[in-house]
Amino acid sequence: MDLPADVKERELHNLLCWLLGFETSEMNFKGNQPMGFALFSTVHQAITAKAMFQDTVFDAETKVALQTDMAKKNLFVKRSSEKTKAEKIHQIKRAEGEEESKYLTGVGIARQCQAIVDGLRDIVLALSENVPGTTPRASWT
User: Fold this and answer.
1) Which of 13, 47, 67, 129 is the most buried (most CB within 10 A)?
2) Which Gene Ontology molecular-function terms are recorded (predicted)?
3) Is the confidence at residue 2, as pLDDT, over 90?
4) Closest to 59 in 3D by CA, of 101, 116, 2
């Protein structure tokens, strides 16, 4: 994508980040004309983005229209990008959720055990009160 000479990498990213399948973008400032590259999840999504921006005026001052083309080779991007950060956050949140779930399961089991003990105690006390000559200890054995 041919861009105005004073373009910032952030501008390219902000232009493309809303498109379906957009993964990342990169600028090349070699030569007199900066060039932008974008990586999409599928070829179809890349072709759609290319068609959408072809001849679109990017800069109102200079009236520079975007010239889009498919790259000769795939854009290689280290996975330390925002997508990787999002995946790490997702993993952390999932682990926190699992930890909370296990904690709540343990709390539920502890409450069930306490209810069983309370019920058993009530039965033993009721038995010792209603049956003459019995004590709670004798009712238990």
Assistant:
1) 13
2) RNA binding
3) no
4) 2
d(CA 39, CA 73): 11
Helix (H) or strand (E) holding 77: none
Report the mean per-residue pLDDT for the chain.
83
Number of structural domains, the chain? 2
Residue 4 is assigned to a structural domain of this protein = no
Query: Per the confidence metrics, is the pTM higher than 0.70?
Result: no
Is the confidence at residue 110, as pLDDT, over 90?
yes
Query: Rounded to whole angstroms, how far apart are CA atoms 56 and 52?
Result: 8
Q: Tell me, yes or no, whether 56 and 95 share the same domain.
A: no
CB 41 within 8 A of CB 24: no
Residue 91 lies in domain: 82-140
Both 132 and 91 in a single domain?
yes
Tokens 């910032």 correspond to: 8
Q: Please give the structure tokens belonging to residue 30.
A: 């070699």
Nearest to 61 by CA among 2, 6, 14: 6
Q: Using CA atoms in the order 89, 94, 97, 99, what is the torsion angle rounded to 10 degrees? A: -100
Percent of the chain with pLDDT over 70: 90
Q: Give the whole-angstrom CA distance, residue 8 versus residue 58.
A: 12
